[in-house]
Amino acid sequence: MNLYGFDTKPEAPLEVSQRREVSDAIPMSHRAFEGGKDSRLLKDFPGMYGSINAEIYESHRALVGRSRQMAADNPFIKRFLALCKVNIVGDHGIRVQSRLRAPDNTFDKEKNKLVEKHWRRWSGMKNCTVSCNLTFLDVQRLVVESVKRDGEVLVHLVRGFDNEYGFALEVLDADYLDLQYDRPPDMDGNYIRSSVEFNQWNAPVAYHLLTQHPGENVYMSTDRRYRRRIPANDMLHIFDTIRAGQVRGIPATHAALIASKHLHEYIRSTLVAARVIASKFAVITTPASDGYKGTTSVDGNVKDQAEAGMIWRLNQGQSMEVFDPKQPSGEFDPFTRVLIQELAVALNVSYASLSEDLSRANFGSQRTSLTGERDIWKLDHRFFSSHLICPVFQAMIPMGMMFNAEMQSSLNFIDLDGLRDVVYQGRGWTWIDPAKDAQANMRQVQLGSLTYEQLFALEGKDLQEQFDQIEFEKKIIEEKELKIGPDVILEKDDLANQANEEEDTTNAKNGLRITG
């Protein structure tokens, strides 16, 4: 058959003997993936073949426990967690920018201000949590650190709570979810895996929490029930999903635990060796027949002390051997640098940020590493905005409209649909050379490739708030008749440029040429 000039007649299949000749021509060992071959060098590299939940079940307790210990004892893991809080949450937290529109499709300025005002008011310590001891900024930092260190965290949305907005949060360790609590499917098809109840479509239905923390050494609860069931609509189970069907989270530090442990022990051992070198103690040897007569410890060991300027007089037959270990060696610095680089790669941060070692950094390398690192922080912004800020905001506003008189009189339930279009703005960053970046950004604004909203978002600022503040400051400057502000700076720059142009013209007329 000929179709559009091409012969579509299929070729005759190869005979069995022909196929065998083709396959036999290439040995199996040469046709497999290199990473999938089996050899004596790969006997300790079996691979992971279980489901993600089976793998987590076997390793979860050790991973979380070791991650917490490294967070407490290892300065580099502690530094990583601090970087997460600083770069994901920042000093203001992830902000909410309301985008309600009026009937003419313009932004409703008054309603947007009202929504953001009450959101900030609810975010205070008085209303945010059931314990009344955390602001929403504190909650964000706690959630970020818990997810990075423990792999997961629970946030209970308590509706109808006794406060101004009828809504509060309860932040809980994921330890309240018993990893070993499972139940087969019931008549409705619901089953429980690691204390999380799922329906037949593997969607969370409820969470079965222990009434007492499993690590608590004093029983404080008066609830006689062993577990409490909380519907999934009232619970945020926040963790980073790395494989489909995953039920529980794993620490972000999991790939760095071994290297961090080795680095921690190596530095500690080298420090002890350095202290030994600073002490420079000696060993006195005595012939076995004589025996050494000196002070002894409680366990019978002979001991002596050395002080500055002391001279020992040895008995006949005794000799002194100086104990002089050669540590730390010249390999300490490059070895620790390699381990810290491994930690930085495993934790998705730059070496300079993790170690604070800028001895080998220059402007170009530092900017390049920071660019890649900040792209990862932006992914974290989006993750925590979607899994924490958005669901909390969408739950708080309707409850506030029922419990708060001002919100009830100013907003209606039609506005709830518009509140789905809010913007969650993470923090921004400045660069090493802000003057050049500012010129480049303004050039992009002039060309239309960058909007003012995008420009302010680079530094984590809100467009409307920025313009309102500029307008407010201009009024004060005019009232006080002050000679400050951007207009004065631009005027001085124009005068300086004009003076430079006049000087260049004069030099050109006089035949002078300025270089440099």
Keywords:
three-stranded antiparallel sheet, 16 helices, disordered C terminus, alpha+beta, 516 residues, four-stranded antiparallel sheet
Textual characterization of the structure:
With 516 residues, this protein is an alpha+beta fold. It has a domain at 65-271 and 330-354 and 362-429. It contains 16 helices and 15 strands. The protein has helices at 16-25, 28-31, 52-73, 75-89, 109-122, 136-150, 257-279, 332-347, 351-355, 363-403, 405-410, 415-418, 434-447, 452-457, 463-480, 486-509; strands at residues 2-3, 6-7, 95-97, 152-159, 167-172, 191-193, 196-198, 204-210, 227-231, 235-239, 282-285, 295-296, 302-303, 319-322, 423-425. The termini are far apart.
The count of DSSP E runs of length 2 or more, i.e. the number of strands, is: 15
Mean pLDDT: 81
Strand content: 5-15%
In DSSP terms (H or I, runs of 4 or more residues), the helix count works out at: 16
Q: What is the end-to-end distance? A: 77 Å
**Category by helix and strand content:** alpha+beta
Describe the global form.
Answer: globular
Q: Tell me which oligomeric state these chains represent.
A: single chain
Main sheet record: 4 strands, antiparallel
- How much helical structure, as a percent, in the residues? 40-55%
Radius of gyration from CA coordinates: 34 Å
Low-pLDDT windows of residues: 512-516
User: Strand order across the biggest sheet?
Assistant: 6-7-8-9
